[in-house]
Every structure is written in C-alpha cells, then in structure tokens.
Amino acid sequence: MDVKEFFKLNILKVFMTIFLIIISFEILMGIFTPEYSDTSAIVTIIIFIASILIGYLIACTIDYFVKSRVIKIVIAVILAVIAIILGWFSLARNIMVCDPVHDPGPVVCDPVHVP
After folding, report:
1. pLDDT in tens, 41-94
2. Is 76 exposed, middle or buried (0-12, 13-18, 19+ CB in 10 A)?
3. CA atoms within 13 A on the CB side of 107
C-alpha cells in the first residue's frame, strides 16, 4: 500500500470526510459531554479536531478498500442521511423553550420571561 495513494484527495473522499466529521463530532460530544451547554471551548475544540482526524482516516480507508465508484457514492449518501438525522436530533435536543405549560424538555428562559 502506497501512503500517497491512501491519503490522495478526490471528491468522494471529501464528501465522505465531511459527513464522517459531522457524525464523529455528534458521537464524541454525546459520549464526553452529556450536556452541550456545559462544554468548555477547549473541550469542544479538542473533540472537533479528533472528529476531523477520525473522519478523514475512515474516509481514506473506505476510499482505498472499496474499488467501485457506485458503492462509494452509496456509502456517501448513507453517511449524509445519518449526518442529517444526527444533526436534527442535536437541534431537537437543544431547543430553548420559555413556556412551562407546553414544556417539551428543559426550560431555558431569559431574565425577562422567567415564569
């Protein structure tokens, strides 16, 4: 295995890397910080850098071992759907609501609207 060939960039590897970074970031944030609001900036940066490394290495591995371009595209589409679903859950989990009657989760209010 040639190292240059393993790390060589192409468009499918870039797409897979982007989706894998999103997936890795969501998973690592969920594992290491149960509540996003309690996360310090340095921890978030470390987790983001780890996500980039993990995502790129997994994308390189997939690109190297899977020879069919069609299968690579299918893998990229599946990764995109997973990234969208994880992103939606992340947004749904962190909704700010200032309505104690219709509260779907934790209530976060600004000082003006404290119930």
Report:
1. 788 788 889 999 999 999 988 888 888 999 999 999 999 999 888 888 777 666
2. buried
3. 12
